[in-house]
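Notes continue from the previous slide.

Worked example: a multi-chain complex. Inputs as given:
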Amino acid sequence: GQNIDQPTEMTATEGAIVQINCTYQTSGFNGLFWYQQHAGEAPTFLSYNVLDGLEEKGRFSSFLSRSKGYSYLLLKELQMKDSASYLCAVLDSNYQLIWGAGTKLIIKP
Amino acid sequence: DTAVSQTPKYLVTQMGNDKSIKCEQNLGHDTMYWYKQDSKKFLKIMFSYNNKELIINETVPNRFSPKSPDKAHLNLHINSLELGDSAVYFCASSLGLADSGNTIYFGEGSWLTVV
């Protein structure tokens, strides 16, 4: 079966750095997405990785290792507004998106 | 201007009723989707249309029927609503099929509660 695993919840302090991990087992791989979803709102796009390595975009970076079936989202200089759920999603060989359940990130002052 | 808009945002209805959720995108995208997000926050694809043609039809009850009058609209009709249909339904769109990193843009969600 297809599986996306990410921690259910994480807590971090304002101004700190947090890394949210995602491991996947899917039938094929055509890329991995990270989305942010605030409570009661729609998911919004953060990043897309299809090649191994680190992609940096401002305070957010996303890393991919295809051989390990592993990705992480790195958030730096955390702000209170970063409190949200972070969804990992993998595009499988049929170009269907398989979604993880999301990691709820709680930021404390 | 809202890129992907869906209505209604909130819907409370009784078991057995028939209801519709409308979705429109003004991004000029070719592909539209309906997702269901359950209480455990899993986003599950229900349907996907590309240029008004059905390309993904996951295992959902026949009571759910999508209709795409044109490529900017994808409406979801639900017949004989059941308690288990209570969830948040997200409409979404992308420029093409979700490959080559095409970003999926989501609507704001429709909170359906069946009582």
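Summary box: The interface with chain B takes residues 30-31, 33, 40-45, 48, 50, 85, 87, 89, 91, 95-97, 99, 101-102 of chain A (CB under 8 Å). Chain A has a mean pLDDT of 92.
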